[in-house]
């Protein structure tokens, strides 16, 4: 779009107003959003056990993308920090400890619980990538980082962390190991792509790809999950990933919504990039 | 804003082609959908009672969760609107018809907004103008998709807007009369924001409520798009309130000038809420 040259290009004087609005939203999030989330997770835990055996097939999105994937050296632990080299796995035996199997998702997880594991691994991958981005930015490797981009990254990182925690809470409640590794199918590609990132715009494009995969995966799984609670949790996360996508497009100077490769806005979100 | 009609036409044609491609899988499963409907044609009376009770409670929560609409008098409509919808339609049909009614209202609202000079004329902010046009078109496509799904189940198309919100939207639009461009734009954005959020929250809830997997997929393919509308409107609203309309721009370099808070104002919650969701049968064909 054209820009009115007579208008002042920068943001003038009312940052505090926007900060106040954001703080208000943040308070709302923790006062309203978090209790609602945990209520949803609690319901899911209550309902999942009885429902998960009813429709253990038709996990297209996850079985195609990650089911049975041999992780090899690609499994990355989110908790290791934002250093992309040094891929490793953690070896623990507690059912609540980090996932250790080289096969992902683990053979012991079926139905909605397998979906939960893969969802957690996707969220971990997003957390991992954003942490890596922040680390690179802090080290001055991406040039000047706009304040809005920094806020976007830290907020999105926080939300993906909460998404991963929600899925892991479900797994833990069923005596299953929490998933602290990143999605093994996508990790090599993300590593390779991140190695080429030298600017904020390139980081935003990588984030856009990850958010799109996450959103489309949640969308695809919605009609495949068994329990209403699982569908509800997945459905409460997909729109948030879609919002991340919209703002990333805006930051990149493109139409702020789901679109085709040529930039045409789409009224219906596709699923061709689902994991 | 300078609009190239040919480019716009090409864009819309391309979009329609893409949408046709996107909807093909949905249409391909219509037979499955109809079959599933026939299998569940005899509604469980207990289920219907629970459904309508949920509807009655939902009217309250929906309007209470939308401050602008509630302040405009929406709460007075509760008694009249909380009556049960047609008991002859299946739950999925009623949900789909309600969704179509919300889409119809959104189309009408954007259509009206585009008649206002600060939204629809060449002097309007180009991003806001394009957003209103594209979004109106998308809502029209959503309405068509919901109605096609309702018809596939043996229901009627819902061609009317959601009755609960029509008077309050009309009142909100009327209140824009005489407003300055800045006030008017902010008013339109605020109204659109509430409608979009109601749509998004309703579809998040409906994705759980509908029975057929095809309908779950349809709602899932739309709820995120509405959430994106919300994100954009939240960002635009924040920049307008902050007196920085020049930053509502897709020009190169704009991101560098955005205030820090603009990076997160579009997605305030890690989990999308449903407390403003419209009752499932609110817009069903009576």
Structure described in brief:
The complex is a heterodimer of chains A (275) and B (286). Chain A has 275 residues and is an all-alpha fold. Chain A has helices spanning 15-51, 60-65, 111-138, 147-173, 187-195, 200-222, 228-251; strands at 69-70, 103-104.
Give a quick set of tags describing it.
heterodimer; A: 275 residues; mainly alpha; Ferritin; two-stranded antiparallel ribbon; 7 helices; globular; B: 286 residues; 66% helix; disordered N terminus
**Number of alpha- plus pi-helical segments of chain B:** 12
Radius of gyration of chain B: 19 Å
Low-confidence blocks of residues of chain B: 1-13, 18-43, 71-88
SS summary, helix count of chain A = 7
- Beta-strand percentage range of chain A: under 5%
3D architecture notes:
Chain A is mainly α and 275 residues long. Chain A has one domain (33-251): Ferritin, CATH 1.20.1260.10. Chain A has seven helices and two strands. Chain A has helices at residues 15-51, 60-65, 111-138, 147-173, 187-195, 200-222, 228-251, and strands spanning 69-70, 103-104. In chain A, helix 1 packs parallel to helix 4 and helix 1 (15-51) packs antiparallel against helix 7 (228-251). With 286 residues, chain B is mostly helical. The longest helix of chain B is centred in the last third of the chain and has 29 residues, at 181-209. The N and C termini of chain B lie far apart (43 Å). The radius of gyration of chain B is 19 Å and the shape is globular. At the A-B interface, helix 1, helix 4, helix 6 and helix 7 of A face helix 1, helix 8, helix 10, helix 11 and helix 12 of B.
């Amino acid at each position: 779009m054209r820009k009115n040259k007579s208008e002042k290009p920068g943001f003038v004087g009312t940052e505090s107003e926007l900060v106040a609005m954001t703080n208000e939203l943040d308070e709302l999030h923790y006062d309203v959003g978090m209790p609602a989330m945990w209520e949803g997770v609690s319901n899911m835990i209550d309902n999942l056990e009885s429902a998960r055996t009813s429709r253990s097939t038709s996990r297209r999105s996850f079985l195609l993308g990650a089911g049975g994937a041999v992780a090899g050296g690609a499994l990355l632990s989110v908790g290791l920090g934002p250093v992309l080299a040094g891929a490793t796995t953690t070896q623990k035996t507690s059912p609540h400890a980090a996932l250790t199997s080289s096969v992902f998702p683990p053979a012991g997880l079926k139905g909605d619980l397998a979906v939960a594991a893969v969802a957690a691994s996707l969220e971990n991958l997003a957390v991992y990538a954003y942490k890596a981005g922040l680390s690179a930015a802090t080290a001055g490797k991406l040039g000047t980082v706009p304040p809005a981009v920094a806020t976007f990254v830290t907020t999105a990182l926080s939300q993906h962390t909460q998404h991963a925690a929600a899925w892991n809470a479900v797994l833990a409640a069923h005596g299953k190991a929490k998933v602290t590794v990143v999605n093994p199918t996508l990790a090599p590609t993300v590593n390779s792509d991140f190695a080429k990132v030298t600017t904020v715009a390139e980081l935003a494009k990588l984030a856009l790809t990850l958010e799109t995969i996450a959103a489309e995966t949640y969308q695809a799984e919605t009609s495949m999950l068994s329990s209403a609670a699982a569908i509800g949790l997945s459905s409460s996360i997909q729109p948030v990933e879609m919002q991340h996508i919209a703002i990333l497009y805006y930051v990149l100077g493109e139409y702020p919504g789901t679109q085709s490769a040529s930039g045409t806005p789409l009224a219906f979100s596709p699923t061709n990039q689902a994991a | 804003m300078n609009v190239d009609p040919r480019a716009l036409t090409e864009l819309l044609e391309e979009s329609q082609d893409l949408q046709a491609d996107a909807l093909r899988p949905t249409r391909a499963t219509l037979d499955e959908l109809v079959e599933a409907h026939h299998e569940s044609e005899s509604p469980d009376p207990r289920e219907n009672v629970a459904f309508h009770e949920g509807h009655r409670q939902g009217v309250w929560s929906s309007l209470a969760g939308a401050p602008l609409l509630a302040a405009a008098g929406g709460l007075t409509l509760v008694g009249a609107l909380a009556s049960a919808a047609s008991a002859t339609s299946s739950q999925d049909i009623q949900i789909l018809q309600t969704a179509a009614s919300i889409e119809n209202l959104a189309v009408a609202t954007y259509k009206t907004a585009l008649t206002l000079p600060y939204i629809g004329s060449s002097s309007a902010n180009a991003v806001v103008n394009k957003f209103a046009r594209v979004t109106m078109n998308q809502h029209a496509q959503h309405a068509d998709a919901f109605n096609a799904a309702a018809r596939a189940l043996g229901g009627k198309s819902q061609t009317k807007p959601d009755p609960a919100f029509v008077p309050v939207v009309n009142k909100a639009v009327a209140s824009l009369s005489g407003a300055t461009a800045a006030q008017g734009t902010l008013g339109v954005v605020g109204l659109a924001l509430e409608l979009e959020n109601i749509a998004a929250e309703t579809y998040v809830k409906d994705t759980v409520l509908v029975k057929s997997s095809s309908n779950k997929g349809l709602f899932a393919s739309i709820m995120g798009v509405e959430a994106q509308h919300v994100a954009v409107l939240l960002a635009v609203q924040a920049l307008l309130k902050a007196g920085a309309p020049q930053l509502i721009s897709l020009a190169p370099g704009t991101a560098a000038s955005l205030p820090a808070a603009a990076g997160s104002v579009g997605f305030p919650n890690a989990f999308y809420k449903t407390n403003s969701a419209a009752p499932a049968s609110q817009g069903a064909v009576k």
